[in-house]
Amino acid sequence: MDFLRDPFGFVIQEYTGWLGGLGLPAGWVDIIAKLTGALVLATGAMLFVVFLIWYERKLIGRIQDRFGPNRVGPWGIFQPVADMLKIFTKEYITPIGADKFAYNLAPILAVAAVLLLWSVLPLSVTVVGTDLNVGLLFLVAVGGLGEMSYILAGWGSNNKYALLGAFRLVAQLISYEVPLVLSALVPVMLAGTLSVNGIVQAQESVWFIVAAPAAALIFFIASIAEIGRSPFDLIEAESELVAGYNIEYSGLKFGMFFVAEFLHAFTVSMIFATVFLGGWQGPGAAEIPVLGFVYLMLKTFVVYFVTILFRGTLPRFRIDQMMNLNWKVLTPLSLALIMAMAIVGGLTRELPVFWQVIAFLLVNLLLLGATDQLMRLSQSRKTKSNLPMQPLRKVLTTSTKHGAGE
Amino acid sequence: MNGLQVVFLLAALVSLFSAAMVVSARRMMHAALWLVLTLMGVAVIFVTLQSSFFAVVQVLVYVGAIAILIIFSVMLTRRVMEDHGDQILPGWRAAGLVAGLLFAIIVGFLALWQGFTTMLVELPADADNLLDLGQALVSPQGYALPFELASVLLVAALIGAITIAVDRKEDQHG
User: What is the pLDDT of residues A254-276, one digit of tens each?
Assistant: First the structure.
């Protein structure tokens, strides 16, 4: 094993070899090696957030015609470090009547739920935490732990606004989990496995975003909703909720939620790059594993860049619009897509890969076009039928209960 | 005692303890949170049995969806979040007796089943029990009929829920 071709795999192998030389039993060596790997990966990911925060602030600044952070260090790159030091020195405040256990557990659980996602993502040919045979389901299931942390935070704070924010966030997360899982089933069908590594390996000849652009689009939208970024940032609607589930947190406990949010945004970009953009696949990645890591990072940053562009440009959804988009557009579309992909896949099983991919692509584009037409149709019908009752509608929308409008 | 048994014992103890806390916690919200811990313990037991699919689905469906729905309904129900004093049922002895009897009967029937005494066989590392499960669910020799029946039941429940919850147009004007 050459150090230059695969530094990570080389270090891992040297380390496990050294552990084995200490005379420990094989089982212990395995456990210690995995624990060290988890520690290194988690610490690396958390430290990486420092860079992510700078990157995002700089980019948002550019979008808004500002400089962004530019005082501390070259191009302001040490600004997050200064912010981190500031947050370390702040006072911890526990509100009166808070449920101490839930209140303190929530920030830890929020970060842990995001870090757990990294345990099944293959970083290169040789470096993968654990190749679970249900890896993709694991990614979704861990999201459920994140939801628990928001509920704990909202309820433990003993604050009505925090509770409302947590309700709204969890309602959004649970709803968008449906199209997320359904659209993730399409790559699973194409690859024939639930293992994340298997899905990456199945994209050797063609990326799944080419074979299933509709599934990729649904997955991307649902991912943005899962991280609560704009246009789905109803959870921190300042004018309605003050700041959402985390208003009662201060100091490092607030910082943990902050870290979890940024790391989650980056991690879902990485999941998208892994599932739809071929992960570490690329020219020469199989022979030189470190190239695979570079490819994965490049793809992830392209996706992350797009999410930041979304954040910088799109206005916020109203809650009924958000729910309508999910239940009336994304969910039916992904259900139809699964059936169509299964039928087309069965019909074209004998054909060469090229024609099969063309057939998949056509079906996807057809479904996307049909959805677009249907949405336009219902929109024009709505505006037509609602025009005469415009004044009445205004009264109704301000007085009806939350989310029941339209 | 090997590592697997230690993990199993720990998971079993945690799930049993938190299951007891579910019924004895004074606050409804705490009971719901203990229930989450119980379900996580069951997921760990599935892992020790090498059925990773069930472990993940346990977390996904029970912790990620059902427990959260329970917490939602606890929070949306009026005034159950406060303490209510004594929560022990007056006739708890009779209830305990019935529960114990039921448990004994179920265990007795399980003991009659031949799978109860079969020793577990460790799966080879490359075995894919997920594939077998999927094929068993759709093959006519396997569980295709129960699977379809369950689907019909779930669809019926879904339609029923929508029928109850739907906002009828004529009601809005009245």
Answer: 888 888 888 999 999 999 999 99
Which residues of chain B does A145 touch, with a Cβ-Cβ cutoff of 8 Å? Answer: 59, 63-64
C-alpha–C-alpha distance, residues A118 and A7, integer Å? 19
- Are B75 and A194 an interchain contact pair (Cβ–Cβ within 8 Å)? no
pLDDT in tens, A188-205: 988 888 888 888 888 888
pLDDT averaged per 10 residues in sequence order, chain B, 174 residues: 82 92 82 89 87 86 85 73 63 89 92 79 72 84 89 93 80 52
Residues contacting B68, CB < 8 A, separation 6+: A144, A147, A148, A151, A170, A174
A133, B128 Cβ separation under 8 angstroms: yes
From chain A, the residues in CB contact with B67 under 8 A are 148
Domain ranges in chain A are 90-315
